[in-house]
Write a sequence for this structure.
């Protein structure tokens, strides 16, 4: 069994020079192997076309459900009562998706990360039983409606969307922006401030709700395949039974963000690995001045830096996953990982872009997608500055946000 796992991982991740993936179980490795096969067969042939026309390849993406990336029994061997796979597997799933394409990874993190964790952590027993199985098998699509047009990093005190209790119902009014998949989702967790106690609560808005409107944000230069929507809520009625009962303030929201910020750190790791892999492919193939591009000293120095960045990012992703699997959930850990991994990602895609040259601004070498998409990953789930301030607060014991 150990030999089989080693063989799978060697095939999947030759760039994992320190063998971080060895911490996966055989079952987890097999699911990731099947995921790779589906990506190569179904998604790779179409991703550039969908990215260019700013549409999402739903039909091909949902083939990933065949691998059971959220609920395959192989992911729960020895832990049958668990509600989700191990975090170490989660890190490599995001690595696998983002190593291929950031839009695919982002769509998944909205569904399987932000949305799913909101339901798991925010729902009572009945709500968890109703919502999570259908999300895990992709029968229902979900998302995460927190960010607003005028409030991103300051959402704790600035959240403007309101919720007013009227008998057994709540009435929501406000706007959300940059909400991935919100125009096609079946259930939309919407965060709003209770006008009575001013605390943030979360409400499940169902597809087709009167007064709910989601329009994709146009003219994006990054993550073009993901439909980030601008949501308007005009007197949207949500029954009390669809209010997530365990979200009653920003502290509860922050507990969700610990998970999802780590997820985005993993996406940045995958982007780093993907840019490195795509660059090596070009460097080994293209000739300049009568020899392979990769045979030049300056190219090899850049490739070595890129591999070092992959290794650094993997170390953060794997270690934070281990801590979370042990039950240690700290915002400073997620913030540090996201800050570091997004920095090395940005450096790596730029190095790759330089090595590939003019072809690096096209989609044909994949570097163009990585280069453009990195800008979105660098910013979302906490900008570099916000994550640095979270870490800085931990260092000196005093926040410096304002």
């Amino acid at each position: 069994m150990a030999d089989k796992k080693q063989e799978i991982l060697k095939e999947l991740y030759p760039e994992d020079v320190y063998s971080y993936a060895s911490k996966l179980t055989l079952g987890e490795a097999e699911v990731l192997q099947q995921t790779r096969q589906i990506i190569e067969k179904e998604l790779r042939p179409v991703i550039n076309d969908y990215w260019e026309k700013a549409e999402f390849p739903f039909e091909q993406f949902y083939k990933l459900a065949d691998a059971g990336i959220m609920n395959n029994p192989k992911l729960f061997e020895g832990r049958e009562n668990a509600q989700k796979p191990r975090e170490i597997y989660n890190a490599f799933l995001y690595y696998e998706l983002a190593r291929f394409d950031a839009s695919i990874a982002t769509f998944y993190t909205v569904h399987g990360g932000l949305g799913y964790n909101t339901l798991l952590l925010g729902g009572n027993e009945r709500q968890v039983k109703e919502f999570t199985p259908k999300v895990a098998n992709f029968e229902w699509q979900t998302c995460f409606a927190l960010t607003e047009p005028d409030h991103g990093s300051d959402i704790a005190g600035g959240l403007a969307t309101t919720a007013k209790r009227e008998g057994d119902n709540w009435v929501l009014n406000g706007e959300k922006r940059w909400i991935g998949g919100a125009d096609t989702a079946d259930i939309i967790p919407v965060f709003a401030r209770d006008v009575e106690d001013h605390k943030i609560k979360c409400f499940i808005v169902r597809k087709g709700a009167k007064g709910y409107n989601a329009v994709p944000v146009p003219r994006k230069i990054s993550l073009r395949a993901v439909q980030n929507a601008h949501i308007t809520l005009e007197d949207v009625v949500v029954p009390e039974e669809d209010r997530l009962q365990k979200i009653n303030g920003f502290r509860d929201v922050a507990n969700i963000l610990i998970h999802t910020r780590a997820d985005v750190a993993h996406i940045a790791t995958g982007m780093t690995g993907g840019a490195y892999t795509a660059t090596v492919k070009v460097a080994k193939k293209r000739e300049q001045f009568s020899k392979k591009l990769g045979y030049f000293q300056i190219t090899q120095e850049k490739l070595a830096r890129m591999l070092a960045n992959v290794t650094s990012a993997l170390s953060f992703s794997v270690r934070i996953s281990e801590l979370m699997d042990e039950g240690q959930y700290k915002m400073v850990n997620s913030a540090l990982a996201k800050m570091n991994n997004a920095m090395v990602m940005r450096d790596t895609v730029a190095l790759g872009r330089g090595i590939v040259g003019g072809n690096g601004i096209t989609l044909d070498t994949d570097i163009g997608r990585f280069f453009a998409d990195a800008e979105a990953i660098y910013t979302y789930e906490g900008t570099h500055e916000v994550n640095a301030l979270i870490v800085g607060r931990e260092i000196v014991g005093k926040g410096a946000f304002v």
Residues 28 and 106 are 21 Å apart (CA to CA). The chain is about 50% helix and 15% strand. Strands lie at 162-166, 169-180, 187-194, 200-206, 212-216, 228-239, 243-248, 287-288, 291-292.
